[in-house]
Write a structure and sequence with these properties.
The protein has about 150 residues and is of the alpha+beta class. It has a single domain, classed as Pnp Oxidase, Chain A (Roll). It is about 20% helix and about 50% strand. The chain has 3 helices and 10 strands, in the order E-H-E-E-E-E-H-E-E-H-E-E-E. The strands form 2 sheets. Strands 1, 2, 3, 4, 5, 6, 7 and 10 form an 8-stranded antiparallel β-sheet that branches. The protein has a two-stranded antiparallel sheet with strand order 8-9. Strand 6 and strand 7 form a beta hairpin. The protein starts with a strand and ends with a strand. The mean pLDDT is about 90.
């Protein structure tokens, strides 16, 4: 097997062609990772969720990491890692344009609201389904691709 590092452009192109990945955050030295749907546009990753552990932790510590991959088999895969900063897109005048862009980008794909808007039971009670749109600014991106030799 041969593993090569992707260029920044190749990593961004790979990210732009995907809609599903994993987002990681941390709170008091405890990491947390969860799957999410997203859309890439202009050095930002846009997504949608409801308030839960991920959003609470990102509000407390806006540093986040995203992993997106495509695995054909153990010897053929591509993986891209993004380090970025969380920004909640509020319903204020300043946030409205970004919220509309997030909705437009996400809405282009089927089931764009899952898993973020799925009914979830937390501590024995249904989580409120109040929408939270957010974006991650891309501070750093890198990727690797494995191919058979």
């Amino acid at each position: 097997m041969h593993i090569e590092e992707l260029t920044r452009k190749a990593s961004l192109d790979f990210l732009a062609g995907r809609r599903f990945g994993r987002i990681a955050c941390a709170n008091q030295s405890q990491p947390y990772i969860t799957p999410f749907n997203f859309a890439y546009h202009d050095l930002h990753i846009y997504s949608f969720s409801t308030v839960g552990r991920k959003i609470e932790w990102l509000r407390a510590n806006p540093l986040a990491c995203v992993e997106v991959d495509e695995i054909a088999n153990p010897r053929e895969w591509t993986s891209v890692i993004v380090f970025g900063r969380y920004e909640e897109l509020t319903k204020t005048v300043d946030g409205q344009t970004a919220r509309e862009l997030a909705y437009k980008l996400l809405h282009q794909h089927q089931l764009w609201w899952e898993p973020g808007y799925s009914k979830t039971i937390l501590h024995g009670e249904a989580r409120p389904l109040d929408p939270v749109y957010y974006r991650l600014s891309i501070d750093e991106i890198n990727g690797h691709r494995a191919t058979p030799k």
